[in-house]
Amino acid sequence: MVKQSDQVCVVKGWQEGPVIDESTLKDDLTRHFYYTLGRDKVGESQHYLYHALALTIRDRLVARCRETNQQIKQEKRRKTAYLSLEFLMGRALGNAVLNLDLDEQVSSALQEYCTTIETIEDAEHDAGLGNGGLGRLAACFLDSCASLALPVIGYGLRYEYGMFNQSIKDGNQIEQPDNWLREGHPWELSAPEHAKRVKFGGYVQSYTDKFGREHRQWMGSQDVLAVPYDVPVPGYKNNIVNTLRLWKSEATDEFNLTEFNAGSYSEAVAQKNLAEQITMVLYPNDSSENGKELRLRQQYFLSSASIQDVVDQWLSQHGESFSDFADFHAFQLNDTHPSIAVAELMRILIDDYELDWNDAWQITTKTMAYTNHTLLPEALEKWSVSLFSKLLPRILEIVYEINARFLAQVAQQWPGDVEKQRALSLIEEGDEPQIRMAYLAIVGSYSVNGVAALHTELLKAGLFKEFYALWPDKFNNKTNGVTPRRWLAHCNPVLSELIGEKIGHDWVKNFSKISDLRRFYDDKSFHEQWQNAKRENKQRLVDLVKARCDIDFDVSMMFDVQVKRIHEYKRQLLNILHVIHLYDRIRRGDTQGLVPRCVLLGGKAAPGYYMAKKIIKLINNVAEVINKDPQAAPYLRVAFLPNYNVTAMEVICPATDLSEQVSTAGKEASGTGNMKFMMNGALTIGTLDGANIEIRDAVGADNFFLFGAQAHEIDDIKSRYNPEHLISQNSDLKNVMQLLESGHFNLFEPCLFDDITNAIKSPHDPWLVAHDFESYVAAQKEVDKAYADRTYWTQMSILNTAASGLFSSDRTISQYSEDIWHLEPLNISETDLTTAKS
Ligand code: Z15
């Protein structure tokens, strides 16, 4: 570990020289290309030019980042640490160019190299450090925090391998490792001088200090080093640059000492692997848990390193008293994944700084805040007590103590009710006792929030109802949002330009302004411009589908899109049943009123999720049969886009006409893809689930295609569910099932889809696919009718974009700040920058 010097010596160059002189971007690019990277030809690969441009822009971020941190420190600002195992950042270049307003300078500099930003951009790998919604939400939140000038630091893990790359072979998903750092990551700056030690294993010992006080001490641990890598997070045209601090695990030098002394030097060095494994790979499960030891190590590693980092900064700025620590800090826990942070903060305060339990608990429960993202039971984390005891013995003791004190409170609220105590205990009893991480998070936090109105209501009435009875004021809703910078301004320049012409460009910063678009709802020439923009965006997607799938989409057809993780509750299956139904109609010559469609699906399945992988195979087989049938070609084309990721979505959502949000009601906590599509003028076909409900309320029921059972009806429907009867009664569904069961889509692979057809026919199908089929098909008919009237559709499309103001993550983050974090915005002026040199 590098020791930091106590003496601060300010480097002269950046004290007196000019601040980054924006006019030299061109020179900086050349300097980085020639000298930093040592290149003199652009060559076939654009990679070095991308790298040089990224470094050039990073220079401009560094000065602003330093200034942001200095203001936080000097003004002793209250700040928030956003703790998340996932940050699905995607590409950084285009976003930085937009937020720093460097578009013109970059274009002109690149002209010298005979290229454009669009070309260069393609050399950047996605930072795929997340699975799906939860990870992308964290990334949108960082953009909004910086753009609102809020002092928020993200803490995450620097996975060597992010989300796997998906390819499709014979219709099946193949996973390939994503070695995203291979060609270097120009955005990050490592700070080894701020490395932390994280303990694992060992045992706990008591000792008595000279005042006769009892202490517990975590001994004999094998420590792992956490080295921070800082990624700059630029705000939109406000000179704020926040930090995303990603921890990399490394072996400590003494890690191998015993082996070394035993003479096996090489074996000892090879042991490094164990420590370095921790941040090797992201677990690719979205909304499901797998209980692997390495995953628990990741969670504790993140929690411990991040809390130590905050505490160390506190000590250097405020000294050893923690009495007003809570006035200056909030920790937002992104799901239960980092919820061990509750126990870790307690451990540090008690064991390292000798606070007594009550003081430490006061501080902890005034700083921790927990966001829940799911009601699915399989996603609710539990860790076995025995694993905890082996890996984190001191943390287990603290969890037991938290539980003992909590259960005393439960006994007070419900006297004599032993069943209540059993039900609410942080420890689930059984053959293999388990720690309920959500309960730990709730008990240890001052705020518990859901991510959409319905989701929060269901949490309060169901999953967490006793906790809600105990602490009603802890519970609150924060409906998710997405950043309008990446998800409109950056990904849809054509539409953004058009919107800007009509209502000005203020909407990028102040997204509630987007509602001004409503004024043009009836403007015929605006309709034409709106349609032209959509057509241009559709052509981009046509090119992508051609390149990736070798399937011909056609811009004159309706683009019907469902892209998200593959999961039974999201019901990609329902979508594909509708596709089969359309195909069946075409084959029967029943094409009256049928609007030609291109149906696109995409998404990754967790590698161990059998049914999700079957669904991918089904989609691909159905697509193949339909696409090679000349009778279908004028009406229907189907593609499964491999390797759906953030960058693909930037092409997909601007091109979409119809957004499929068809989860079983009550299962999708919020959804955020739904918001990206809406912003870009797509209409939604969806259930009353998650944020769909709020989307429909905002745009008006007439501009949304609703179908399906509602959340409050589900239990009743399940109690008398008889899908075989539904199939026999509905000739459309009957035909679809017959086609499927006849082997029409698996001629050479008998029985391939039996598990799928059986799931649909099962009276225990939790997702009620057969139940919602009829109303789904009816809603799709309404879609066709609406799309056939171009003016009507265009009006609804404009209204969707105009009503999307609520779904900006700026709104969400303002609410987090108002209600939970209580932060004040920073302010960095141009004059601040001209004194802070780079
Ligand atoms: C995840 O992506 C989500 C929830 C989870 O519990 C996990 Cl482990 C991963 C998603 C929700 O499914 C989605 O509805 C929500 O919009 C998103 O989190 C962000 O809140």
TrEMBL record:
Catalytically driven reaction(s): [(1->4)-alpha-D-glucosyl](n) + phosphate = [(1->4)-alpha-D-glucosyl](n-1) + alpha-D-glucose 1-phosphate
Official protein name in the record: Alpha-1,4 glucan phosphorylase
Family statement drawn from the similarity comment of this UniProt entry: Belongs to the glycogen phosphorylase family.
Transmembrane intervals: none
InterPro entries, alphabetized: Glycg_phsphrylas (IPR011833), Glyco_trans_35 (IPR000811), Pyridoxal_P_attach_site (IPR035090)
EC number: 2.4.1.1
GO molecular function terms noted in the UniProt entry: 1,4-alpha-oligoglucan phosphorylase activity
Organism: Pseudoalteromonas issachenkonii
